[in-house]
Amino acid sequence: YRLFQERMEQMGLIYPLDGDSDFQRLVQEEWPQTTRLVERIRSGQNNAIKQVHEAYPERGIRQLLVAPPEGFPAVLEEAGYSVEGIDFEPLAVFSALVEDREQVESMLAERVVRAALIRRLNLSPDQLSAYNIFRWLQSRRGDPEWLSEQFSLAGVALAPERLDELADYYVRSEHLQAVAGDEPPTEEAGIFALEGRLRWLILLAFCVCMVGVANAMLMSVTERFTEIATMKCLGALDNFVMMMFVFEAAIQGLIGGLVGIVLGTALALLRGGVEFGRLLTLSPTVMIQILIAALLSMAVGVVLAVLAAVGPSLVAARLAPMEAMRVE
To answer: pTM (2 decimals)?
Structure first.
């Protein structure tokens, strides 16, 4: 474990869970117990599968799910499976769809069927796949009767209606998988785990913030021309006038940052509670990240407000007293 700690420090990696102590407890105490528990579960599953095979030696598990024989739930329960609340009808439908799709994919290995599909679909050999066949069936150019005939010549009986059903199911499944994505969410990037579009939205929000603060400060300078002229006549220097407006903008940025932190944290927690319910937990690591993000947001708000106030402050600092006194 010491060697592992050295390698983690050399590569600059962060310990999983909540730190070194929790990870060490997992590796030295909890992991061996978990391994033994997994082995017991795996052994029990193997014994249960063996009992099911002994009860139905001529049929595989998928064939049993497609057409469950009489007393099949009782056999599963005797083997150790929990069948309470399980509806076998949807399982049978899904298993039949999987089996029929495998038959379609097996036809792609048949040289005669493969050549006929390539010519009919006008595809290159590397583009021929079950998904492209199903998409072709869903299009207006699809011909399920012709495809069913080609499969029957190779010894596979799939009715045209069944092929249409397969195409509809698996094309919708592929679209859903494309929308959901294959990569699980990750926290490796911490508080900077932002998508590209979100980064542009944040940049746009920064620009709007600077324009709003600059507009407010410019209006403030315009309304206070007489006061600025009076202070200059009393001996105020340009730097003093400029820093006065910059300090005012910094206070605005600080107050706006505090309000944004409170509202943003409340909305984030509310959304997390609605989506995850009791699964939402705030570990010390998450709390530290929220605190860092809050402080960073406040600092960015103050900096943006100060930068936006530089232009109006220069206008106020360079204002001639006699010119300002003429303004009504």
So the answer is: 0.43
